[in-house]
Amino acid sequence: MAKTIVSLLELLSDLVIAWAIEAAATAAASWTVVGAIAGGAVMVATAMEAISVGDVYKAHGMAWTICTGVACTVAGYLSLLHDMKDHPLSKGTYECLGA
């Protein structure tokens, strides 16, 4: 799980660096109308990709929260099992006659 989070953060930082480079290139080419429009479009595309990486990060966090919630709920219900002496397990091997 830690590697997944590290990979997502690396991808997000790479996109931020790419966005900064695109912003510099757009500023350098802003004296032409076409350069400013094309650079702005590329910057918006990179920003949208960075937002989608953030959404994946949020989804991963929610999935982890759900997993820990289920594990804690199961552990809680297992702690309610008492008096297993009333339900003895079989002492010999189990033979399924239908198999």
Q: What can you tell me about this protein's structure?
A:
- Helix content is 75%, strand content 0%.
- The protein is mainly α.
- The model has no long low-confidence stretch (mean pLDDT 81).
- The protein is built from two helices and no strands.
Set out the fold topology.
Layout lengths: L1 H27 L4 H47 L20
Helix pairs in contact: 1-2
Shape: rod-shaped
Structural class: mainly alpha
Number of helices: 2
Low-confidence stretches: none
* Strand runs, count: 0
Query: How large is the share of residues in beta strands?
Result: under 5%
Major sheet size, sense and barrel closure: none
Mean pLDDT: 81
User: What's the SSE pattern?
Assistant: HH
N- and C-termini, Cα separation: 40 Å
Radius of gyration: 28 Å
The helix fraction, in percent, is: over 70%
Write a compact overview of the structure shown.
The protein is built from 2 helices and no strands. The protein is an all-alpha fold and 99 residues long. Helix 1 (2-28) runs antiparallel to helix 2 (33-79).
